[in-house]
């Protein structure tokens, strides 16, 4: 198969050389050499606007990159300094429901890897299924349930390239315990303990929100928050050896009763993200500064 066919087809992940082309393009357009990557969830892209000395790359300008099609996802890579730490931020991500295969949703993580990123922060907006969770809570993700994996799909499906990682990567400890402990200290220091939770995230394919029966089933299997992203990115990040920290902003309460007319909707998701964005940006900034101290020591 020629390179062009491989790039155009959706059946198999881009080869190393194609990912490298994207990485080299970004490296040639910025002086920064970030070791920390951030994927901004729905309505959470404001962090990228806070970077100093930033270089901005609309996704359509980056070779081989998909484009964002969802409200609340600006669709650009922003590389710059946050409190002096070099960072690259995806202001907008790719979802399976947009029509992208899982490997393409997560392809930017490999681009980050080839640019030198070793630590990644993945954020999302999610529905709170744990009845204790309130709208506006921040859930540190301690684990996930990979529903697509149960069904035989994976961003790692297809031939494995050992230059990225092993055929059979472990996925326990996907969410770095030391980073979680560090984040909890920061949360306490910021007096945010009462709005921060720690729980299990599930990704469903979307774009529908869930039925009552689906939500009740998910709760039984141990889910605390429900979304339509993050898992492919985390799987690919762990496959290539990155340390992962992830959190969900609980933008709505999942509706687990039949006797209500309330309905989940994306406008509410964006609205809540807007209300909470300052706390989230401050939290992310402090985590990034601490992370940079960690990788400088290691
Ligand atoms: O996961 P992010 O991208 O934050 O967005 C979440 O919010 C959207 C639904 O409102 C879906 O895209 C879901 O995945
Ligand atoms: N699947 C799903 N994704 C979301 N993103 C934000 N809220 C939700 C939700 O309730 N369900």
TrEMBL record:
Keywords assigned by UniProt, alphabetized: Glycosyltransferase, Transferase
EC number: 2.4.2.1
Sequence ranges assigned to domain Nucleoside phosphorylase in this UniProt record: 35-288
Gene Ontology molecular-function annotations: purine-nucleoside phosphorylase activity
Residues that coordinate or bind a purine D-ribonucleoside: 210, 252
Record Gene3D superfamilies: Nucleoside phosphorylase domain (3.40.50.1580)
Positions that bind phosphate: 42, 73, 93-95, 125, 229
Record's catalysed reaction(s): 2'-deoxyguanosine + phosphate = 2-deoxy-alpha-D-ribose 1-phosphate + guanine; guanosine + phosphate = alpha-D-ribose 1-phosphate + guanine; inosine + phosphate = alpha-D-ribose 1-phosphate + hypoxanthine; 2'-deoxyinosine + phosphate = 2-deoxy-alpha-D-ribose 1-phosphate + hypoxanthine
Name this protein carries in UniProt: Purine nucleoside phosphorylase
Species assigned in the record: Homarus americanus
Phylogenetic lineage: Eukaryota, Metazoa, Ecdysozoa, Arthropoda, Crustacea
